[in-house]
Amino acid sequence: MEVRARAPGKIILAGEHAVVHGSTAVAASIDLYTYVSLGFPTPSDNDDTIKLHLKDVDLEFSWSVGRIKEVLPDMGSHTASSPSSCSLETIKAISALVEEQNIPEAKIGLASGVSTFLWLYTSIHGYKPAKAVVTSELPLGSGLATRDGKCFGESELELVNKWAFEGEKIFHGKPSGIDNTVSTYGNMIKFRSGELTRIKTNMPLKMLITNTKVGRNTKALVDSISSELASIIESPVSDDLAITEKEEKLEELMEMNQGLLQCMGVSHASIETVLRTTLKYKLSSKLTGAGGGGCVLTLLPNLLSGTVVEKVIEELESSGFQCLIAGIGGGGMEISFSGST
């Protein structure tokens, strides 16, 4: 039996820093995905291991079921329908299993992700042998979380989201819940003081995402920017003129947000290079996420010439940046099954 799934990446449209002070942030899914296939061997395969293959970085990990049972003797007793947190003691035990894999120093940043996989897998499937293969259209470490598959029902998605949130805790300690919620349900969410509100976009929205490859009392004003941005995206549009008017307002809000982030000192020379380049083509941009590098969003208006987009990308890539074009606010996690159980 093989299970295939995909989940979209996410961007923060506004409020990434003010959110920690109780203001509103708006996040959205993008139509760039991470894919995973999970295959289970048959008894005749005589394979008693749990494997993880990260194809994009050419790394493979393998643990014998016996070794996992030795280090994690209680993992077979978990119930998949009742997500629970990973204890500090378990995290230390899993970290020891990951260290045994001798991850190259240049890729040691992947260790927390491998630990998260190992904990989630054994919590849900126990000691059942399997091989997971992961690929992604997203740049590694950029901060951005199945083909023809069927979408889960609401209750199933809720369970997926709860498990994903528990996995996020291993990554971030005290996550907001934004990343896992956007990647599970798709579209957009507003986040404020611990409350997540799912919203639906009613206008086509496309962004140029520039990865800089750099690893990485304005509260009331930032809050109003996030709230107004969400309101614009949610309201219906009737024609191209209405879309253009909304895009112009979004450009204004993005520029205001970026100005405030610059005042907070979270920009970076690489980000400023992207901003100057896109401004030459009269395009509005802002950083997304923590800043200090990372990624920059550039709104691509609906009527913008493809030739202009090509010129912008060419100039940015000549500066050493990586460019991706993504639709905003698309679907969430999908899954499909093949083979016999």
UniProtKB/TrEMBL annotation:
Catalytic activity, reaction form: (R)-mevalonate + ATP = (R)-5-phosphomevalonate + ADP + H(+)
Compartment list: Cytoplasm
Key word Transport present: no
Molecular-function annotations in GO: ATP binding; mevalonate kinase activity
Keyword Transferase: yes
First-tier enzyme category under EC: transferase
Annotated EC: 2.7.1.36
Predominant localisation class: cytoplasm
This protein's pathway: Isoprenoid biosynthesis; isopentenyl diphosphate biosynthesis via mevalonate pathway; isopentenyl diphosphate from (R)-mevalonate: step 1/3
GO cellular component, one term: cytoplasm
Domain GHMP kinase C-terminal residue range list: 248-301
One biological process term in Gene Ontology: sterol biosynthetic process
Similarity-based family: Belongs to the GHMP kinase family. Mevalonate kinase subfamily.
Name of the molecule in the record: Mevalonate kinase
